[in-house]
Automatic annotation (TrEMBL):
It comes from the Bacteria. Residues 31-142 form the Aldehyde oxidase/xanthine dehydrogenase a/b hammerhead domain. InterPro entries: Ald_Oxase/Xan_DH_a/b, Ald_Oxase/Xan_DH_a/b_sf, Ald_Oxase/xanthine_DH-like, AldOxase/xan_DH_MoCoBD1, AldOxase/xan_DH_MoCoBD2, AldOxase/xan_DH_Mopterin-bd_sf. Signal peptide: none annotated. Keywords: Molybdenum, Oxidoreductase. Gene3D superfamilies: Aldehyde oxidase/xanthine dehydrogenase, a/b hammerhead, Aldehyde oxidase/xanthine dehydrogenase, molybdopterin binding domain. Residues 1-10 have a biased composition (Low complexity). It holds the Pfam family MoCoBD_2. This is Xanthine dehydrogenase family protein molybdopterin-binding subunit. Residues 1-24 are annotated as: Disordered.
Length: 704
C-alpha cells in the first residue's frame, strides 16, 4: 500500500482519493486526546442512572421515591408522575419516533427493560446505587414473547419498499420446474453493541440546549429533540465528535431524552450513560427471523420461480420491520417472482436498523437456498449465479447503475482457488477436521441523501471544510479530507474537516451506507465553486472565502435506477465431527462497491463486516426467556461474539466499479461486507459435512 501524504504546501496535488491514508484523528484516538461523550468534563455535572422495568408487561402502580431521595448525593428521581411531558406526535427525519425514547410519559410497561425512572445524583456511583435500590411496584399482566413462523397475528407491512411484490404465477412456475428447493431458515435475535456505550450530557447554556452525545447524526438527533421538547430547532445544539461504533443503534434513545429532562428540572448539566446490559433493551437490535425460500428451476439451473417470505417481530409500541425479502428483488429474476415481508407485535423491545438491515439475514436464507439449488442441479454454485444474472431489476425492471457481481465472482474464484473445488460434500479431511468451502453473493443499496457543506479558503493558504458528518469509526472524517483535497487540488494536510456538530447545518446521518457518499457530494460542489472563485485571483481576505453547498437539487435530479453495491463472499471452514466445532480458516470478499476513497479504512470496514458475518454464522444469539420475557446473559459474556481466535485470515478487495452518477464515483461500503458472509460459511459447512444448517448460529450442539 502506498501513502499519499506527500506535503507540497498548497501546490496542486491530485490523487489523494484512492490511496491509503491513516486516520486524521488516529493519533488523538490512540493517545487518549480524543474525548468520547461520557468522558468530557463539565462543571457542576450531575449523573443520571436509568432504572428499568423488571416485568415484561403491565402497569406501574407506584414508585417508592422517598427512601432513595434520602440516599447520599441523590438529587432527584424522575418517573412517569413527575417528568416533563414530551411530544411524540410528529413525523421526524426517519418517520414517527419510537416512543421508547420518550421516557416516563405513562404508567404502561410494554417490555422487560423498559425505562421506568431516572435517579440523578452528584456522582455516577451514588446514582447507580440509588437506582438499583429503587423499588417500583407493578401490576403485572401476562406477556407474549413467543416468536414463531406460524403466528396467526402476523401481518404484512410496507416499509423500506412494499411488503409484497408479485410477478407471474408462483405455483404454476414451481409446478413446471424440474428442480425445486423449498426450505425454511431462521436467524436469532442479534444485538449491535458498539464498544462505546450510549452516553449523553445535556445542559442549558444561555437559553440554548446543548447535548454532548455519541450518535450517528447530530442534525438528526437535534431535530428529534427539538420536536420532542417543542423547542425552536435553532435553540438545540447536539455535538458528537468521536463515536466508538454505532451500527444503527445510535439515534435518538432514552438516555438523551432522560438527560434533557433532568437538566431542565435541575438546571445543571446531567449525564446519562447506559450500561451494556441496558443497551440490550434500549438501543435496538436485529429481530429474529423465520424465512421460507422456494426456488424452482429447469434442469440447467435457470430459475422459473422464486419465492422469499420473511417474518420478523417488533414491539407493541413501534413498528420496525426487518425486510429480509428485499435482496431477492435485486439479485435473481424468474418468470414467477414473489417476495413478502411480514411482522408480528410482541411484548419485546423495539428492534431497529442493525448493519445491513434486511440484507444480512435475508442473504443468509436466499444464498443458502441458491447453494441447495446448485447441489440439486449438479451445477457449480458460481455457474448457477452466472446463469441467473439479471439484465435489469427483476421486480422494478429498471437498469442497474452498475452491477459487476460476476466480475466479483470471477476475481474471487481466481484468488480463492475455486476452480479446483470438488463439489461433493464430506470428502476432505485434515486430521480430525472435515474441510469445506462455500460462496455467496452480497448486495446492499447505494443511496445518497441531501446534505450541506461549507468550504473556506483561509488567508494562510489552507482550507477548512465544515460538513455535519458523523465518523462512527468508519474513517469518514479522513475520507472527506481526501475528497476535499482532490477537489481543492491540494494536499490532505492542507485541509481540516469539522464534523459532528448540529450547528454545522443539515446533513444525512451515518447510515444506510450513504454517509460518506452524501457528505462528499456536498463537499465536491462547495469545493468546486470555491476553486472557480480562487481562480479569479482576487486575494483572500483575513476572514477567508467561504462557499456553501446544498445537494438537495442534485440528488433530486438522479434518474431512477437500481443502485446497489455488490460482492462475492468465499469461506473455507474446518468442522470437528467429534465436538461439533466449526472453525473458519479463511475468508475472501471481493466487492463492486463504487470508487474506494481510502483503501486502508475501506478494507477495515469490509473485513469488519465479514468478521461480523462469521460471528452471525457461528456465535451470535440473544436468548429470550419466555417465562420472564427478558434475556439470558444480556452482556458480552453471555452474548457470544467472534473473538480474535475465531477470526482467521480475512481478505477483502474490490473490482473497478465507479458509480456513473456520483461526483466522486462512490457507492457506499458500510454494510455490504456482512451481507452473504454467514451464507458463505454455512455453505462451506455443508460442503465439509454434507449437512445443511438452516438455523443460525451453527452451534456445536447443532453440528453434532
Ligand atoms: Mo446502519 S444499520 O444504516 O447504521
Amino acid at each position: 500500500m502506498t501513502s499519499a501524504t506527500t506535503t507540497t504546501g498548497t501546490r496542486a496535488v491530485k490523487g489523494s482519493v484512492g490511496s491509503a491514508h491513516t486516520r486524521v484523528e488516529g493519533r488523538d484516538k490512540v493517545t487518549g486526546a480524543a474525548r468520547y461523550a461520557g468522558e468530557i468534563p463539565f462543571a457542576e455535572l450531575a449523573h443520571g442512572w436509568l432504572a428499568l422495568s423488571t416485568v415484561a408487561r403491565g402497569r406501574i402502580r407506584s414508585v417508592d421515591t422517598a427512601p432513595v431521595l434520602a440516599m447520599p448525593g441523590v438529587l432527584a428521581v424522575l418517573h412517569h408522575e413527575n417528568a416533563p411531558r414530551v411530544d411524540t406526535d410528529y413525523v421526524g427525519l426517519l418517520g414517527t419516533p419510537d416512543p421508547t425514547a420518550a421516557v416516563f410519559q405513562h404508567d404502561r410497561v410494554p417490555h422487560m427493560g423498559w425505562p421506568v425512572a431516572l435517579v440523578v445524583a452528584e456522582t455516577s456511583e451514588q446514582a447507580r446505587e440509588a437506582a438499583e435500590a429503587l423499588v417500583v411496584h407493578y401490576e403485572q399482566e401476562p406477556h407474549d414473547v413467543a416468536f414463531s413462523a406460524d403466528r396467526p397475528d402476523a401481518y404484512p407491512l410496507d416499509n423500506f419498499g412494499p411488503a409484497v411484490t408479485q410477478k407471474g404465477d408462483l405455483e404454476t412456475g414451481l409446478a413446471a420446474s424440474a428442480v425445486v428447493v423449498d426450505a425454511e431458515y431462521t436467524t436469532p435475535e442479534e444485538h449491535h453493541n458498539p464498544m462505546e456505550p450510549h452516553a449523553a450530557t445535556a445542559l442549558w447554556d444561555g437559553g440554548r440546549l446543548e447535548v454532548v452525545d455519541s450518535n450517528q447524526g447530530t442534525f438528526w438527533v437535534a431535530s428529534e429533540i427539538a420536536n420532542m421538547f417543542s423547542l425552536d430547532p435553532a435553540s438545540v445544539r447536539v455535538r458528537s465528535e468521536h463515536v466508538g461504533g454505532g451500527f444503527g443503534s445510535k439515534g435518538l434513545r432514552a438516555h438523551q431524552v432522560a438527560a434533557v429532562m433532568a437538566a431542565t428540572v435541575l438546571q445543571r448539566p446531567v449525564r446519562v450513560v447506559m450500561t451494556r446490559r441496558q443497551m440490550f433493551s434500549l438501543t435496538g437490535y436485529r429481530s429474529p427471523t423465520t424465512q421460507r425460500v422456494r426456488l424452482g428451476a429447469d434442469a440447467d439451473g435457470r430459475l422459473r420461480a422464486l419465492d422469499h417470505s420473511s417474518l420478523s417481530l417488533t414491539s407493541t409500541v413501534h413498528e420496525f420491520i426487518e425486510a429480509c425479502a428485499a435482496p431477492a428483488r435485486v439479485m435473481y429474476d424468474a418468470d414467477a417472482h414473489h417476495t413478502a415481508n411480514r411482522l408480528v407485535r410482541l411484548d419485546v423491545p423495539t428492534p431497529t436498523f442493525m448493519r445491513a438491515p434486511g440484507e444480512a439475514p435475508g442473504s443468509f436464507a436466499l444464498e443458502s437456498a441458491l447453494d441447495e439449488l446448485a447441489e440439486k442441479c449438479g451445477i457449480d454454485p458460481i455457474e448457477l449465479r452466472v446463469r441467473n444474472e439479471p439484465e435489469r431489476g427483476p421486480v422494478s425492471g429498471l437498469p442497474f447503475s452498475s452491477r459487476n457481481l460476476l466480475a466479483c465472482f470471477r476475481e474471487g474464484a481466481r484468488r480463492f482457488g475455486w476452480a479446483d473445488r470438488d463439489p461433493r460434500p464430506g470428502l476432505r479431511r485434515d486430521g480430525r477436521w472435515l474441510l469445506g468451502t462455500g460462496t455467496a453473493a452480497a448486495s446492499f443499496g447505494s443511496a445518497a441523501m441531501p446534505s450541506t457543506a461549507a468550504v473556506t479558503a483561509e488567508a494562510d493558504g489552507t482550507f477548512t471544510v465544515r460538513v455535519n458528518a458523523a465518523d462512527i469509526g468508519t474513517g469518514a472524517r479522513t475520507a472527506l479530507t481526501l475528497v476535499a483535497a482532490d477537489a481543492l487540488e491540494t494536499a490532505p494536510d492542507q485541509v481540516r474537516v469539522h464534523i459532528g456538530d448540529s450547528d454545522l447545518g443539515p446533513a444525512v446521518l451515518a447510515g444506510g451506507s450513504m454517509g460518506t457518499r452524501s457528505w462528499s457530494w456536498a463537499v465536491m460542489i462547495a469545493a468546486g465553486e470555491l476553486r472557480e472563485r480562487l481562480a479569479l485571483n482576487t486575494g483572500i481576505p483575513p476572514e477567508g472565502i467561504t462557499v456553501r453547498s446544498d445537494t438537495t437539487a442534485a440528488i433530486g435530479a438522479l434518474s431512477r435506477k437500481e443502485r446497489h453495491s455488490f460482492g462475492a463472499q468465499f469461506a473455507e471452514v474446518a468442522v470437528d465431527p467429534a465436538t461439533g466445532e466449526v472453525r473458519v480458516r479463511r475468508m475472501l470478499g471481493i466487492f463492486a462497491a463504487g470508487r474506494i476513497v481510502n483503501p486502508l479504512t475501506a478494507r477495515s470496514q469490509l473485513v469488519g463486516g465479514m468478521t461480523w458475518g462469521i460471528s452471525m454464522a457461528l456465535h451470535e444469539e440473544a436468548v429470550r426467556d419466555r417465562a420472564t420475557g427478558g434475556h439470558y446473559g444480556a452482556d458480552l459474556a453471555g452474548y457470544h461474539v467472534a473473538s480474535h481466535a475465531d477470526v482467521p485470515h480475512i481478505e477483502a478487495d474490490w473490482v473497478d466499479d465507479v458509480d456513473p452518477d456520483d461526483p466522486v464515483g462512490i457507492k457506499g461500503i458500510g454494510e455490504v461486507g456482512i451481507v452473504g458472509a454467514a451464507a458463505a460459511v454455512a455453505n462451506a459447512v455443508w460442503h465439509a459435512t454434507g449437512v445443511r444448517h438452516r438455523n443460525l448460529p451453527i452451534r456445536p450442539d447443532r453440528v453434532l
